[in-house]
Design a protein that fits this description.
With about 260 residues, the protein is an alpha/beta fold. It has helices spanning about 45-50, 85-95, 110-120, 125-140, 155-170, 185-200, 215-220, 235-240, 245-255, and strands spanning about 5-15, 15-30, 30-35, 60-65, 65-70, 95-100, 175-180, 205-210, 220-225, 230-235. A hairpin with a 2-residue loop joins strand 9 (about 220-225) and strand 10. It is globular, with a radius of gyration of 18 Å. It starts with a strand and ends with a helix. Bound molecules: adenosine-5'-diphosphate.
Length: about 260
């Protein structure tokens, strides 16, 4: 079982709008998958589906040893999931960590406290152990000297790197990034991409939504081009980005490159 993630026939609609139609793909362990596509094509909805932040209507997704068949989840009369399914979703969500477009850090906690919150509250780690690990993670993302600063004392790029350290602190098997640099001033983008590149070099399994096509070409093992809620093209960057087979992919890339 070399694939860490296996998504089969994932579908999601909002009202009458079928945003994700029938999406299947796999992510081998230790590889980077980049999702590209026009605005509104369903990239974020798909990514959030992988973490069940937005629950797909149907489809089966396996991450590591946890599989969820979304059509089979059962709700009680009050609309909440039955407790056994809530537990399944909790285990499923623990397999991945999400880095959002804008960091949403706790403003009244230091960088260090933002990183230790999850391990202490969710995983019940001891504070001294959580602090040691958080300092290591902040060093990894280049923020060793900023551990005791508050978010308002950090640049947007530094805040985003705290967000990455915070996701790493929960030791997920899979890291998900939703346009991690699109809210940043251009001069801050490079530092965040550098951190992501370092994680790729460490062999972390990641799925990223990004408009940074050149970065995608560098870092991705696999590129998914999505349009209208469907995977139009999927392959290595040398195929999808440098030699796209579909007209829709070509048109999209022409506008960006
Ligand atoms: P992308 O990330 O490719 O820009 P999204 O996944 O954000 O696309 O959105 C795809 C479509 O789904 C858009 O038309 C968007 O308006 C719609 N959509 C996304 N989230 C919601 C929601 N919570 N409720 C209703 N419509 C939504």
């Amino acid at each position: 079982m070399n694939d860490l993630l296996e998504a089969t026939s994932v579908a999601k609609k909002f009202g009458d709008h079928q945003v994700i139609k029938d999406v299947s793909f796999t992510v081998p362990k230790g590889t980077v998958t980049v999702i590209i596509g026009p605005s509104g094509s369903g990239k974020t909805t798909l990514l959030r589906g992988l973490n069940a932040l937005e629950r797909p209507d149907s489809g089966i997704i396996r991450i590591g040893d946890v599989t969820v068949d979304f059509a089979k989840l059962r709700s009680s009369r009050n609309g909440r999931l039955k407790s056994s399914d809530r537990e399944l979703i909790r285990r499923y969500q623990a397999r991945s960590g999400m880095v959002f477009q804008s960091h949403n850090l706790f403003p009244h906690r230091t960088a260090l406290q933002n990183v230790t919150e999850g391990p202490i509250v969710v995983q019940g780690k001891r504070t001294d152990q959580a602090n040691d690990e958080a300092r290591e993670l902040l060093t990894k993302v280049g923020l060793a000297e900023h551990a005791d600063k508050y978010p308002s004392q950090l640049s947007g790029g530094q805040q985003q790197r705290v967000g990455i350290a915070r996701a790493l602190a929960l030791e997920p098997d899979l890291l998900l990034f939703d346009e991690p640099t699109s809210a940043l001033d251009p001069e801050l983008v490079g530092g965040v991409l550098e951190v992501i590149r370092g994680l790729a070099a460490e062999g972390r399994t990641m799925v990223l939504v990004t408009h940074e096509i050149r970065f995608a070409r560098d870092v991705a093992d696999q590129v998914l081009f999505i349009d209208g809620g469907l995977v139009v093209e999927r392959g290595a960057p040398a195929e999808v980005i440098d030699d796209p087979q579909q007209e829709r992919t070509r048109t999209f890339l022409h506008r960006l490159l």
